Amino acid sequence: MIRKINIFISCLFLCVGVNADEIDDMMCLESLFNLDIEPAEVASNTVVDVVIDEKEDVKPEVVAATVASTAELSRDELELELAVSRQEVMRLRDIVQRILVANRRERAEMQYNLGCVLRHGGYNIKAEEAFLAAIKINPDDPAIHYNLGILYDEDLNMPKKAIKHYKRFLELSPDDKDAGKVYEWMMALQSK
Fold it and tell me: Which of 73, 94, 130, 77 is nearest to 16 (CA)?
């Protein structure tokens, strides 16, 4: 039986298969997760959304049977179906969120690694762009601030920016093995 709710859940499966790089933020998916459908609305709804596979012919009698069977469902059956659908939506929301978090972490690591490689190759402006892109994705990663601070300090001769990132590194990771060294570098820059 094809019902609006089941089609909605099918659309969520498509979202799980979407390349997460194309999804900027969980907020763009939020509208997919709003299930404010009341059983009475479903029972009285005469519009039936049908997903048609291009290879499949949908016969008018199938659509008519679907509309009739939806109208015949009792309120209890509709409430049960909605409850099951809501649980499925929550499960799929969790899956999508985990995909987005993992993808976000991977993109930040990729930009960070790119920045390190570019700096090593002497492409300091491109390295700065990569580190800044990584910070935009993950502003609380101390390693990014550490390396960006070094880039500004040693390669780009931008002491104010170096100090800013050294401070952020120390805020995020005060017990790091390099914290003492970073503090000394920062003090040396401030005394200039």
Answer: 94
Question: Taking the model in full, what pTM does it have?
Answer: 0.55
Structural domain harbouring 121: 105-190
Chosen domain end from 42, 72, 103 = 103
* Together in a domain, 141 and 156: yes
Element (H, E) at 86: helix 75-120
Last residue of a domain, one of 103, 130, 165: 103
Return the amino acid letter for 140.
Answer: D
String of b and e for 136-175 (b: at least 16 CB within 10 Å)? ebbeebbbbbbbbbbbbbeebebbebbbbbbebbbebbee
One digit per residue, the tens of pLDDT, for the chain of length 192 reads 334 444 444 444 444 444 444 344 333 444 444 434 344 433 333 333 434 344 445 566 655 565 556 556 677 788 888 888 889 889 988 998 898 888 988 999 999 999 999 999 999 999 999 999 999 999 999 999 999 999 999 999 999 999 999 999 999 999 999 999 999 999 999 998
DSSP secondary structure string for all residues of 47-73:
-------TT-PPPHHHHHHHHHHHHHS
Residues 131 and 83 in one domain: no
Q: Does residue 35 sit in the same domain as residue 76?
A: yes
